[in-house]
Write a structure and sequence with these properties.
The chain has a 3-stranded antiparallel β-sheet with strand order 1-2-3. A hairpin with a 4-residue loop joins β1 (5-9) and β2 (14-21). The protein is elongated. α5 packs antiparallel against α8 and α5 (139-196) runs parallel beside α9 (271-328). The protein has 340 residues and is mainly alpha-helical. It is built from 9 helices and 3 strands. The protein has 2 domains: 5-129, Phox-like domain (PX Domain, 2-Layer Sandwich), CATH 3.30.1520; 139-328, Substrate Binding Domain Of Dnak, Chain:A, Domain 2, CATH 1.20.1270. It has helices at 34-47, 67-85, 94-101, 106-117, 139-196, 202-227, 229-232, 234-266, 271-328, and strands at 5-9, 14-21, 30-33. One of its GO terms (biological process) is plasma membrane tubulation. Pfam families: BAR_3_WASP_bdg, PX. It is found in: Cytoplasmic vesicle membrane. This is Sorting nexin 18b. Belongs to the sorting nexin family.
């Protein structure tokens, strides 16, 4: 997803952001507005009742064209597209491929849009498209697995909220508190150097310059701290938000599976047909849970690697700045004052 551009329509009366998408399998860029993403999301949620379609970045009534908001939304859409393209079902469904590949031809876009909106294989009919293994699942084992995932999801959601709160607070401290404190220390070194400058003796000059540089170094480090959360903490927060959206989807997904299981238990006379339907729904639900876990491991491993690499680079940058300041004192050629 390229940097979005501001577009207008109705002779400039209405403005919107246009995102350039370049699918790797076509290498042909298409332009989409946020409302197109929103339309696609609604179609996918309607069509796939037991697939967790990731939530889109939130809408915003004001400040839609501010740089920070545009940057954050673009990052959110990149995460969203990465999850969409890595899903074995969503990535290959017709409506998603239409979204990715339909060019500037307005007529073709509307035809594909209407075709998707008239799709009969949505909701419960989606299960008619699923083929299951010959040997059916053990329904008691399925129930145990679902309950285990519910416990996992609850714990993960609680810790996502806690971690996001911690990260937000730590980011705030770095951007305000840490920056301010380092700059106060830097200013103290500079003021001490200025005080020393009142002594005009030659052997003091290089020390005064070194102190001034040390002050500048600390002020620069304060700026480093203020800028750093964008590099290592905000990406984690974005990932946590995405997964919180996923977890919010699962109660409805599990409700579909639970409903099928309850019908099997409540209607023993229709056990054969109901068992078959329940098996299809259970297979689809467990497959989605398995995909969730695999994607979770991939995403969090990658994001933590990125975070730690950024942290290492950050502290190496600070170390380099302090070493530069240290070397300024090597140049101090002390000249012993002559005795009276």
């Amino acid at each position: 997803i390229d940097d979005p551009t501001k577009q207008t329509k109705f002779k400039g009366m209405k403005s919107y952001m246009s995102y350039g998408l370049t699918p790797t399998h076509t290498n042909i860029q298409v332009n989409r507005r946020y409302k197109h993403f929103d339309w696609l999301y609604a179609r996918l949620v309607e069509r796939f009742p037991v697939i967790s379609v990731p939530h889109l970045p939130e809408k915003q009534a004001t400040g839609r064209f501010e740089e920070d908001f545009i940057s954050k939304r673009r990052k959110g859409l990149i995460w969203w597209m990465n999850h969409m393209t890595s899903h074995p079902v969503l990535a290959h469904c017709d409506v998603f491929q239409h979204f990715l590949t339909c060019g500037a031809d307005e007529k073709a876009w509307k035809m594909g849009k209407r075709r998707a909106e008239r799709d009969d294989l949505v909701g419960a009919n989606f299960f008619l498209t699923i083929s299951t293994p010959t040997v059916p699942l053990d329904l008691q084992e399925v129930e145990n697995n679902i309950e285990g995932f519910k416990t996992f999801a609850k714990k993960m959601d609680e810790n996502i909220v806690s971690m996001n709160t911690t990260i937000t607070e730590f980011s705030r401290k770095q951007m305000t508190g840490f920056k301010k404190e380092y700059q106060k220390v830097g200013q103290s070194f500079r003021l001490l150097g200025q005080a020393f400058e009142l002594d005009q003796q030659a052997f003091s000059a290089s020390l005064n310059k070194a102190l001034a540089y040390t002050g500048e170094a600390y002020e620069a480090i304060g700026e480093y701290f203020a800028e750093q959360p964008r590099q290592d903490l905000e990406p984690i927060s974005d990932l946590l938000d995405l997964y919180r959206g996923h977890l919010a989807n699962y109660p409805d997904i599990i409700h579909v599976q639970k409903g099928a299981l309850t019908k099997v238990k409540d209607c023993p006379k229709q056990e054969g047909e109901l068992n078959k339907r329940c098996n299809i729904i259970s297979c689809a639900t467990l497959a989605e849970i398995q995909h969730f876990h695999r994607t979770r491991v991939r995403d969090f491993r990658s994001q933590m690697q990125h975070h730690l690499c950024q942290q290492i680079s950050f502290f190496q940058k600070i170390t380099a700045k302090l070493e530069e300041a240290l070397h300024k004192y090597d140049d101090d050629q002390c000249v012993k004052a002559s005795g009276p």
